[in-house]
Amino acid sequence: MTDIDANRCRQRALALAKRADDAENYATMIVYDGLSREWLRLAAILEAEAENIDAVDLHVSARLRAFRTEAGLDFSQLGARSGVAMQEIELYESGAVAVPAAVIWRLAQSLKRPVTAFYPGAVGG
Questions:
Q1: Residue 47 gets which letter from DSSP?
Q2: Residue of 66, 68, 48, 69 whose CA lies nearest to 57
């Protein structure tokens, strides 16, 4: 079995993003885009493990993505609501950058979630 590393995950994500761009219909584009994002998420997890990034930071990133998608918002819509740049939200969701406490608070307010819902073991998240 081949070892999967972050670089291979990112390569796979780029290939899937290209397929999303080339898709002939919206449904196909959404599927490939979602797969691409999942490979990017896996790459971030692998990089975090290699760099010993705190598991709580990864959990917060995953919760942010889940809450945003449940709300039916894209990065720019959440950015407009929260005052956080969409590029920053993308970095936070990918796990590439830990979400500062003040930003978690602003995002929680925008997503109508308690701040505690972002953390492991949270009830009502």
A1: H
A2: 48
Reported CATH class of domain 54-113: mainly alpha
User: Residue 108 and residue 94: Cα distance in Å, rounded?
Assistant: 18
Tell me the HSE value of 26 on the side-chain side, using a 13 A CA sphere: 0
Q: Is the pLDDT of residue 44 over 90?
A: no
Q: Looking at the whole model, is its pTM more than 0.70?
A: no
Cα Dmax for the chain: 45
Handedness of CA 59, 72, 84, 32 (dihedral sign): positive
Report the first-to-last Cα separation within the chain, whole angstroms: 37
d(CA 82, CA 80): 6
Going from N- to C-terminal start, the domains of the chain cover: 1-52, 54-113
pLDDT of residue 2: 43
Whether residue 103 contacts residue 81, with contact meaning beta carbons closer than 8 Å, is answered with no
